[in-house]
Structure formats: C-alpha cells, structure tokens
Amino acid sequence: MPYVPHSPEEIREMLDVIGVNSVEDLFAEIPAELRPKSFDLPKGKSEMAVLEMLGKMAAKNTTDLTSFLGAGFYDHFIPAAVDALSSRSEFYTAYTPYQPESSQGTLQAIFEYQTAMARLMDMDYANASVYDGGSALYEATLMAVRKTRRRKIIVSEALNPIYRVMLDSYTTNLNLELVTVPHNHGRTNVKSITAAVDKDTAAVIVQNPNFFGSVNDFTEMFAAVHEHKALAIMSTYPVLQSVLKTPGQMGADIAVADGQSIGQPLSFGGPYLGIMTCSKALVRQMPGRIAGRTEDEDGKPGYVLTIQAREQHIRRQKATSNICSNQALCALRTLIHLCLLGEEGLRRTATLSVERAHYAAQRLTAIDGVEMFTKGPYGNEFAVTLPVNAFEVIDKLTERGIIPGFPVGRYYDGFENVLLVACTEKTTEEQIGIFAEILRGAI
Questions:
Q1: What does residue 16 show for φ and ψ, rounded to 5 degrees?
Q2: How far apart are CA 254 and CA 232, in angstroms?
Q3: SS (H, E, C) the chain
Q4: Whether the Cβ atoms of residue 254 and residue 119 lie closer than 8 Å to each other
Q5: I want to staple 264 with a disulfide (CB 3.0 to 4.6 A). Which of 74, 164, 260, 340 is the partner?
C-alpha cells in the first residue's frame, strides 16, 4: 500500500482551491517523455518479491565499465571509513543547525570542514558549502558584482561548459554583461582575457586545470586584473590543489570547486557540494552559512553560525543570497576523507592520477593519427585529436567495456574529433594498455 498522507476528499478540496480538475492536470506542462516512468510492478507482491524485481531492474545498468570519463567529475577511491562515519544516525538525521545549543557536533564539523577547505585553497575563509560547483561559481560572481558595483564579467571559454550554461541561466534577469573569451586550442587565452579587462569589469573567471585539462599559472593575469580593481575568480579541481600552485598563491580573490572528487561517489550525478573560499576582504559577501568558534565565560570552546547574511537573519534587502541549504552531509564526507588521507595521502592521490594520465597520453599518441590536442602542462586529464569522430569511438569502445572519455564536440563546435581523457589513482596501467589497443583497432 503506498503511503499517501491525504484522503481523496482532502486531495479534491486542494485541487478545487488551485482550480484544476485532477492531479494529472498539475503536471500537464511537463512533456510526457520527461515524466518518471512506471516501475510496472504488479499489485499484491511481497516485500521480498518487490526487492527481487527492483534488483533485476537495477542490474540492467552497466556498472563494470572501465571509465576514462572526467570533464569535472572523477572516480577516486573512497575509504570505507567515510561511509561508516558519515552514516552515523546523528549526522544522517541532523536538522539544519539553527540551534547551536543542540547542534554543536554539526557546527564543529562545519567549522573543521571550512578550515580544511581554506587551507587546501590557501584562502582566508570558506563557507559551509553550497549545492555544487556551478552554484558556487554563480554565487562567486554575485559576490564580485556586489563588491565592485560593476556588471561586466569576463569568462574564459575554457571554463567547464556546464558551469557557463548555469551562469548564463542564473544571470538571465540580472542585467549582467557576460563576455566569453575564446580558448586557444584548449589553452586558457590569458593574453586576450587580460586585454578585455577594463574599468567596468567586476570579475574575471578562469579554471585551473581548465576544461581541457591544461594547467596555468594565473599570477600575472590576476595582478593585472587587480590593477583595474576587478576581482579574480578561479574554479579548481580540489584534489590537484595539493600539487599545483594554489588559488591563494596566485592571488585569487574567490576560489570555488565541486567537492565530488573528495569523498563523494559519482552516483549518476549527485548529490555533490560546492566549495566556496575567499579572501578576508570578501567574507561578508559570502553566501550561505559560516560556522565560527568562540569560548564561553569558562573558556570552553563553542561553535555558532556567524556573519549571517541570509534573508531569515537580517533585513531582506541586505541579504547576500537566498541560497537555503549547505550540503552538510556531503561536506562532512569531504572532511572525513581529507582527514583520513592527510596532506601526504592527498598529494599521493593527485600524483598517481597525474602519472597515470601522462602514461595514458603516451600510449594513446603512439597510435597513428592520434595527437595531443592541447600543448603545454596538464594534470590528470588531457585532450587528444582522433582521426575519426569521437562520438563514434565512444560508442564502439563502450560496447567493449570501456568508456574512453568525453566528446569535446558535445559543447565545442568543430571539435567533434577531440576526446577528453581522465585518469585517477584507480586507473591501472593494465587498463590503459587495454584501452590503447582497443582504440588502435577501432580507428
């Protein structure tokens, strides 16, 4: 029996108030092909029988593929302790921490997460996280607009295209001028971005490593941005911050990232969390929640939400954002994962991922017709040009049990033969060898 809290009479009464004839009419605007499909479960089945049927349906998903797919989300190893500790009931069921006197554990976890993120990025402050990397980038953009009172945003085309789509969508009605600077064959076009900055610019947005995997040092460009009193926003891949020059070292004002790669399984797309860090000068522009540590009159530590800039806590016209929820459980998983790895473990994870990617690039470019698309340094991800269409290669190799990467032509016109390939510490040299040999046969 389905759990439906309302009687037919109550549902009828609500529909009458809304002014529609049926529940189906409520969802008439949603195309039929986008609505959830029925599980087609016969009535009267026992729990055991239903579980068996659902298990068979789930088994239709192919989960044993060898994946070289990245493009912003990566298959890193997650220690079993992350699941064990984060699944404790006090974390799983905790209400949002409005009441510090009853939420000290949650607030302490948020505070420690913030501290870890700020140190990872070499920035002054972090918040309790937002929804994902894209929403973090949008919130960072609005921070820059509020701080500078300017409306021009310069965006690198080498920024993850999913984030650029989100930015376009979120800012549609905000009267902002988004200027996209084309990439230079997969490299961030630093020279053109610098030339585009002027007195009307609120912020420059770049990514490191960029969507094509290329690594940059933006130190000089950020200095030029600051000469125009604009802000520098950097989207990052958090795992590689343990081995790359950090946003703080480059002089970024705001650094954001998607935290999936630290402690979150891929899970068909989420839930993830958006990491947000900034300089001290911008902390009062930070959206969402920030946990702080203090001491009571006896000198005992206590944790509270502080610098609240949300509409529930201050006058609405002064709220910095209407974002309503941090991803507390995901942030906790990220914190546990980082604590388990430690500084050396995270650096080892990053180093192994980079080494495997460079080995893969060596093996793939040894195939006739396969060339590196981007020139210059790269991390755990790189793009190659194939002699054939990348979409077709993906179809062929997936049938052989390998997802060879991401087709760049999906977002960049004219690059249908370009394949983006990612490795992590889980990628073995044997898998790379098999990938290379099957690819050789497929093209």
A1: -65, -40
A2: 7
A3: CCCCCCCHHHHHHHHHHHCCCCHHHHCCCCCHHHCCCCCCCCCCCCHHHHHHHHHHHHCCCCCCCEECCCCCCCCCCCCHHHHHHHCCHHHHCCCCCCCHHHCHHHHHHHHHHHHHHHHHHCCCEECCCECCHHHHHHHHHHHHHHHHCCCEEEEECCCCHHHHHHHHHHCCCCCCEEEEECCECCECCHHHHHHHCCCCEEEEEEEECCCCCECCCCHHHHHHHHHCCCEEEEEECHHHHHCCCCHHHHCCCEEEEEHHHCCCCCCCCCCCCEEEEECHHHHHHCCCCCEEEEECCCCCEEEEECCCCECCCCCHHHCCECCCCCCHHHHHHHHHHHHHHHHHHHHHHHHHHHHHHHHHHHHHCCCCCCEECCCCCECCEEEEECCCCHHHHHHHHHHCCEECCEEHHHCCCCCCCEEEEECCCCCCHHHHHHHHHHHHHHC
A4: no
A5: 260
Cα three-residue angle 368-370-371, rounded to 5 degrees: 125
Summarize pLDDT for 62-120 with one digit per residue, the tens. 778 999 999 999 999 999 999 999 998 878 765 666 666 668 888 899 999 999 999 99
Tokens matching residue 193 = 């971005």
Cα separation, 370 vs 46, in Å, equals 55
Cis peptide before 287 (omega within 30 of 0): no
Q: Do 403 and 394 contact (CB within 8 A), yes or no?
A: yes
Q: What are the two backbone dihedrals, phi and then psi, of residue 238, each rounded to the nearest 5 degrees?
A: -60, -35
| Structure tokens, 252 | 């970024």
Instruction: State both tokens at 42.
Output: 């016969």
Q: Which residues contact 400 (CB under 8 A, 6 or more apart)?
A: 438
Number of neighbours of residue 150 by Cβ within 10 angstroms: 21
Whether 324 shows a pLDDT value over 80: the answer reads no
- Total count of residues recorded for the chain: 443
pLDDT tens-digit readout, 202-222: 999 999 999 999 999 999 999
